[in-house]
From TrEMBL:
Specifically methylates position 2 of adenine 2503 in 23S rRNA and position 2 of adenine 37 in tRNAs. SUPFAM superfamilies: Radical SAM enzymes. This is Probable dual-specificity RNA methyltransferase RlmN. Its cofactor is [4Fe-4S] cluster. [4Fe-4S] cluster binds at residues 114, 118, 121. It comes from Pseudozobellia thermophila.
Length: 346
């Protein structure tokens, strides 16, 4: 009878060390394997050249190394790169490399599909198929780091969890992936260069604050008026703005880390002075910054980017009230790599 082999990368370093001790070897062997798996991104046991043949065969008999594969890489005219990433079970997620003159940012996925129902987002139409494992998130970052070195001659500098999925609905795995990314045994990146973007799950925002995480938080707000937010992000009926604000207040009190709000201004939806004033009031309770992001159409024209005059109104009012605001242009639109466009078109 064939027993199902375990994914070796689901094991912690301690568990690997224990495994070797249980098999009559030295615990130190676990460190060596761990290094192969996480620092050297080994794809096979055979390639672990400082282990004896017998040890490699023993690992082979007990484990598999599940690895992602970049199936397709597309490059945009603006330098943005999109990877279609195939997982060990055949499902596909996407991740994006966004280069600017001063940094390269990886935009990674946390779930296959998404369980939320934001009406303006292409990923929402896929439904949630499964959560990504920590190693699957980590591998996307490694793949992009390699591409950054290859095409732009510099390592990856920042990571945003703004790809497919809601990171706080897969919190434990996202946290484990970030631990690997920031650990000296992984990529040794500073958590200050990592941003987790959420549509706003109050309970999980509190948990993050309690866990004392060091990465940054971004919230996809899009409206500070409940009726409007519920129309475009229906889960807002359950996680209301009042709950969200309380959770964010808690986050700020505990972490003293500024909150970024992501916000798209749509024609006829949230483009009036009343909408701007509500946003200003929402921003008051803690130091925050607003990123006005450009809308990336996903098809039927139900949502339309508001004209520049509406954006100017937001910028003027926010600035007058002392709130930092940036207007961000989209990148990678020609290859469907921009925010909200990730939906496995191939
Ligand atoms: N679920 C997380 C992260 C993924 S979405 C979140 O909601 O934050 C990443 C960002 O893209 C969010 O701010 C989201 O609101 C925004 N977004 C989604 N669809 C978009 C679209 N069509 N155009 C522009 N931004 C979009």
């Amino acid at each position: 009878m064939e027993t199902k082999k375990k994914d070796i990368r689901a094991l912690t370093k301690e568990q690997l060390r224990d495994f070797f001790v249980a098999h009559g070897d030295k615990a130190f062997r676990g460190n060596q394997v761990y290094e192969w798996l996480w620092q050297k991104s080994a794809h096979s046991f055979e390639g672990m050249t400082n282990l004896s043949k017998a040890t490699r065969e023993m690992l082979e008999a007990n484990f598999v190394i599940n690895h992602i594969r970049v199936d397709q890489m597309q490059r945009s005219s603006d330098g943005t790169i999109k990877n279609a990433v195939r997982l060990h079970d055949g499902l596909v997620v996407e991740s994006v490399l966004i280069p600017t003159s001063s940094r390269t940012t990886a935009c990674v996925s946390s779930q296959v599909g998404c369980s939320l129902d934001c009406r303006f987002c292409a990923t929402a139409r896929l439904k949630r198929m499964r959560n990504l494992n920590p190693d699957e998130i980590y591998d996307q970052v490694v793949a992009i780091d390699n591409e950054s070195r290859l095409y732009f001659d510099r390592p990856l500098s920042n990571i945003v969890f703004m790809g497919m999925g809601e990171p706080l609905m897969n919190y434990n795995n996202v946290l484990k992936a970030i631990e690997k990314i920031t650990s000296p045994e992984g990529l040794a990146m500073s958590p200050k260069r990592i941003t987790v973007s959420t549509s706003g799950v109050p309970k999980m925002i509190r948990k993050m604050a309690d866990d004392g995480v060091k990465f940054k938080l971004a919230v996809s707000l899009h409206s500070a008026i409940d009726e409007i937010r519920t129309t475009i992000m229906p889960f807002n009926a359950t996680f209301t703005l009042a709950d969200l604000r309380e959770a964010l207040q808690y986050w700020y009190d505990k972490t003293k880390s500024r909150i970024t709000y992501e916000y798209v201004v749509w024609k006829g939806i949230n483009d009036t002075q009343k909408d701007v004033d509500a946003l200003v009031r929402f921003c008051r309770f803690a130091p925050s910054k607003v990123n006005l992001i450009e809308y990336n159409p996903i098809d039927d024209g139900e949502f339309l980017q508001a004209p520049d005059s509406a954006i100017d109104r937001y910028v003027d009012t926010l600035e007058r009230n002392g709130i930092t605001v940036t207007v961000r242009r989209s990148r990678g639109k020609d290859i469907d790599a921009a925010c909200g466009q990730l939906a496995n078109k191939q």
